[in-house]
Each structure stands twice: as structure tokens, then as C-alpha cells.
């Protein structure tokens, strides 16, 4: 696939790094010559220096026969104009734009061919805010990912000493939780992936990824670790776009305070938040944190624009007695350094954004992609099509499917139509089926696949492709 990426910043650079390893023809456009040189030194990509939305610059990048334009500069207006030019002059098939402003993103009817022709809007701030919200809803989870519109979730937890399943073989799970169906998709032990089977024994400190229906998540977590009590009191450090979005999501169900250094921004936050206490001050001010009873706070969420401020304020909050610390880290190299010590969960906006973008790059009928373990692993929701004659998966039991190494089919979401009476219209119901060896995949199933090594992504795409007889 020929892809042009506008913007060599953190999002654009991370996307180029991910896609360049997958046999794509990548060209990155930016006005920063040094940023382009750094990318070209590390990856097999083309670069063009220039203004991202100028037609002659796009022509230099090869827009005439590009399959996709991904505009992820830091300026919404440049991204929008670039998509407009790509559509009007070159009829580029797929146009993706990073839109940060809610004024644009929330305006109905703006993004369509006859207005601003953007096919897909990507908002890293919204993605990160939703991710943080899911973590708050599942106390003790390291990651919470939604599939099938939230019916099914993939959750990562650290197994603790004393957990009922720790030291037990996986085949005994059903005895521990007989009324809950779940599937362990992967285990990471000392940063090495283990493909689980019935005889695999869970050890303390294992990072366990499991799939279950949303309503069953808490029951499964209780078998792997002591359950954290539900959170009540939350402090958000930083009142930027992410801080504001997180506060809006949380303020009705939790006691929320937000700390912001800029007085003008504090006034804006006060006007746009209904139930959040807005505090003017430094996020690293020890006296301020003590005044706000940091030791009684359940979660401290640091989401300023500075990695250094986020790390330092999080470490201070932890030492002052806060229970859980979530820290935004833009520099991916820092994530591994800080997570697991005084910082409980390091959040990378790039990883959250990359997964969303990969959904539109992957071949096949892909619904969602999540990039995991700093890009090494992936979780994919793909729709199966065809029949037993033209598909390698439809009509086959999971044990008979030739999955690549390290791949696990964890669950299936199956739709069925019901017509209870003549007066009502057909209604569709969706059922979560946790995958077992004898589970047979049907056409139309949403299949959740976990890959411990994303190098095998192409194998999964080929596996779910249908033969020409399907068409």
C-alpha cells in the first residue's frame, strides 16, 4: 500500500516506524529537515521537505497514485486542507486526519465529501482519555481494551502472590469460576511471551492478558490478584485537552480535582466542567498536594504536556501516599524505564493512536486493531466471510485452523436475527462466545485474535481472506 504521512512528529514518526516494517511504500512530509533525516536514518521510507498541505509538495510525495493520506501534523487546519486537496485534485481513496479541536470534531456534517472530505478522524487526546476512563472503571487493570462495541474486553493484569489461580494450571480455571467463560490469550513472564495451554502454570508477577464478556471481567480479575476497591477520589494533574476530557468523563461518578498552572486555563476549565474542583498551582507543589489530602486520593493522573513534569509529579504523589499513579509519557523510550516502579501505569499516546490508524491500513475486513507491548504485539478484531469452500476459517473448528506461531483466537462475537412477532421488525442480537478448540467459526463472526509477534499479522490477514468464488 502506498501511504503518505503528513507530519514527522511523535504520531507521524511512530506510524512510519510501524508501517515501514510491513512492506508498505511510505513517504513522510514535514517542514522539519532534521526530523525527516532522523526518520530516514532508521527506517526504509521516503521523505519530502515542505509545507504539508501545498499541492506541489504533495505531488513530490507521490499523491497522484497514493492509496492513503494520513495527515497528523499538529495543526488541524493543515490536516483538513491537505485532505481537501487530496480529494479535489487527486481523488485519493482514503484520507485520515488528526483533529484535536472539539469545535471541529463535534460539528455534525462537517466531515463529508461535499464539505471537508475526511474519511476518518483521529483524535489522540480522545483515544487516551477513553483509555484512562476504562482503566479507572477496572481498578487493578494494566490495560482494558474494548471489542464489539464494549461487549467483550481484553484485560491485562499482574498476577499477585495469593491469587487463587497463581501456581495453578490453566485447565483448572473452570473449577475456580464455574459460571464464567473466559480465555487467557497470552502471558508475559519477565517480558517474554508465553503462549498458554492447559498445562501452563500462572506465576506471581506474570502479566496476564485475558478475554471475557464485559460483565465477567471483575470475577476473573479476582482469581488472579486481590481486587482493588472501587476508586472514589481522583486528582488530575494538567488541565489541557486530555485533562479536560478525562475530567468530563469522570466527574459525575467520582470526586475529581484538577490542577492547572495557567490561571486563564483554570477559568476555562471552571466554565466547562460541572462537578470538578479546579485548582490553580503547580502539579509538583508538595504543599498543594498535601493540602488536597493526596494521601487519601485513590488515583493520581498526570497528563501535562511535559514528560518530565508528569514523571516527577507522579513520583511525588506516590511517595506522599496516593494509591495508584497513571502517567502520560510521550517519549516511548521512557515508558519501559518508568512503568512498574513508583509509576503504576505509563500511558503512551502514540501506541493508542497507532492501533486506531492500523485498523484502516490492514488488509481484510478489520474492525479494530490494538497495538500492545510497545508495538511488539497486536490484538485484532476481524470479520470472517465466505464458506468452507472458499475460506480457511469459516466452517472450521478452531483446533483445525492453521494459526501462525504465537497467535490465539480468544473469542467470537456472533450476531443473530430474531423476529419475535409479526408486528416487530427484525432485531439483531449479539452473543459473546469464548473460543474453545471445538468452536466452529461461522460467516459474519467477529473473531478476536491475539498476536504476541506482530510480524505474523500478514499471515492472519491471508488466513481470513476469501477465494474468488466468494465474489
Describe this structure in words.
By secondary structure, the protein is an alpha/beta fold. It has 4 domains: 2-122, Rossmann fold (3-Layer(aba) Sandwich); 140-224, Regulator of K+ conductance, C-terminal domain (Alpha-Beta Plaits); 233-347, NAD(P)-binding Rossmann-like Domain (Rossmann fold); 352-470, Alpha-Beta Plaits, CATH 3.30.70. It contains 15 helices and 22 strands. The chain has helices at residues 10-20, 33-42, 55-61, 76-90, 102-105, 124-137, 173-176, 217-224, 241-250, 263-272, 286-291, 307-319, 332-338, 349-361, 457-463, and strands at residues 2-6, 25-30, 46-49, 68-71, 94-98, 120-122, 143-147, 152-158, 182-189, 192-194, 207-213, 233-237, 255-260, 276-280, 299-302, 324-328, 345-347, 366-372, 377-383, 407-418, 427-434, 446-451. The strands form 4 sheets. The protein has a 6-stranded parallel sheet with strand order 3-2-1-4-5-6, with helices on both faces. Strands 14-13-12-15-16-17 form a 6-stranded parallel sheet, with helices on both faces. Helix 1 packs across helix 14 (349-361), helix 6 (124-137) runs parallel beside helix 9 (241-250) and helix 6 (124-137) packs across helix 14 (349-361). The radius of gyration is 23 Å and the shape is globular. The mean pLDDT is 87.
Keywords for this structure?
Rossmann fold; 471 residues; 27% strand; alpha/beta
Amino acid at each position: 500500500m502506498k501511504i503518505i504521512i503528513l507530519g514527522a512528529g511523535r504520531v507521524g514518526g511512530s506510524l512510519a516506524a510501524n508501517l515501514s516494517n510491513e512492506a508498505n511504500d511510505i513517504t513522510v512530509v514535514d517542514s522539519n529537515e532534521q526530523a525527516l533525516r532522523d526518520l530516514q536514518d532508521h527506517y526504509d521510507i521516503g521523505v519530502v521537505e515542505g509545507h504539508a498541505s501545498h499541492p506541489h509538495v504533495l505531488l513530490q510525495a507521490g499523491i497522484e497514485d497514493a492509496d492513503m493520506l494520513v495527515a497528523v501534523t499538529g495543526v488541524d487546519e493543515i490536516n483538513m486542507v491537505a485532505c481537501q486537496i487530496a480529494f479535489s485534485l487527486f481523488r485519493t481513496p482514503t484520507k485520515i486526519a488528526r483533529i484535536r479541536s472539539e469545535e471541529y470534531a463535534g460539528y455534525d456534517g462537517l466531515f463529508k465529501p461535499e464539505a471537508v472530505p475526511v474519511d476518518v478522524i483521529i483524535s489522540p487526546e480522545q483515544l487516551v482519555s477513553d483509555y484512562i476512563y476504562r482503566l479507572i472503571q477496572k481498578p487493578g487493570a494494566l490495560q482494558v481494551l474494548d471489542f464489539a462495541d464494549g461487549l467483550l474486553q481484553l484485560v491485562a493484569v499482574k498476577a499477585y502472590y495469593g491469587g487463587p489461580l497463581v501456581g495453578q494450571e490453566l485447565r483448572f480455571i473452570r473449577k475456580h469460576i464455574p459460571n464464567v467463560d473466559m480465555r487467557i490469550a497470552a502471558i508475559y513472564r519477565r517480558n517474554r511471551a508465553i503462549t498458554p495451554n492447559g498445562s501452563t502454570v500462572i506465576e506471581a508477577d506474570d502479566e496476564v492478558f485475558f478475554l471475557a464478556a464485559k460483565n465477567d471481567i471483575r470475577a476473573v480479575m479476582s482469581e488472579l490478584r486481590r481486587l482493588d476497591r472501587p476508586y472514589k477520589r481522583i486528582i488530575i494533574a494538567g488541565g489541557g485537552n486530555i485533562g479536560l476530557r478525562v475530567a468530563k468523563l469522570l466527574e459525575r461518578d467520582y470526586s475529581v480535582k484538577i490542577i492547572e498552572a495557567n490561571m486563564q486555563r483554570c477559568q476555562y476549565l471552571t466554565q466547562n466542567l460541572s462537578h470538578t474542583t479546579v485548582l490553580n498551582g503547580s502539579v509538583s507543589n508538595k504543599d498543594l498536594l498535601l493540602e488536597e489530602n493526596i494521601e487519601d486520593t485513590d488515583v493520581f493522573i498526570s497528563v501535562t504536556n511535559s514528560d518530565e513534569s508528569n514523571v516527577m509529579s507522579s513520583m511525588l504523589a506516590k511517595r506522599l501516599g496516593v494509591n495508584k499513579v497513571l502517567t502520560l509519557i510521550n517519549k516511548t523510550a521512557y515508558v519501559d524505564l518508568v512503568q512498574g516502579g513508583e509509576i503504576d501505569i505509563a500511558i503512551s499516546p502514540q501506541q493508542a493512536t497507532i492501533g486506531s490508524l492500523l485498523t484502516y491500513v490492514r488488509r481484510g475486513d478489520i474492525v479494530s486493531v490494538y497495538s500492545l507491548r510497545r508495538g511488539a504485539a497486536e490484538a485484532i478484531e476481524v470479520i470472517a466471510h465466505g464458506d468452507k469452500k472458499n475460506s480457511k476459517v469459516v466452517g472450521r473448528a478452531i483446533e483445525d485452523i492453521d494459526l501462525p506461531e504465537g497467535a490465539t483466537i480468544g473469542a467470537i462475537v456472533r450476531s443473530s436475527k430474531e423476529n419475535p412477532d409479526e408486528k416487530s421488525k427484525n432485531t439483531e442480537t449479539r452473543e459473546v462466545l469464548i473460543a474453545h478448540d471445538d468452536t466452529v467459526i461461522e460467516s459474519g463472526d467477529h473473531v478476536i485474535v491475539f498476536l504476541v509477534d506482530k510480524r505474523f499479522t500478514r499471515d492472519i490477514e491471508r488466513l481470513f481472506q476469501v477465494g474468488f468464488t466468494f465474489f
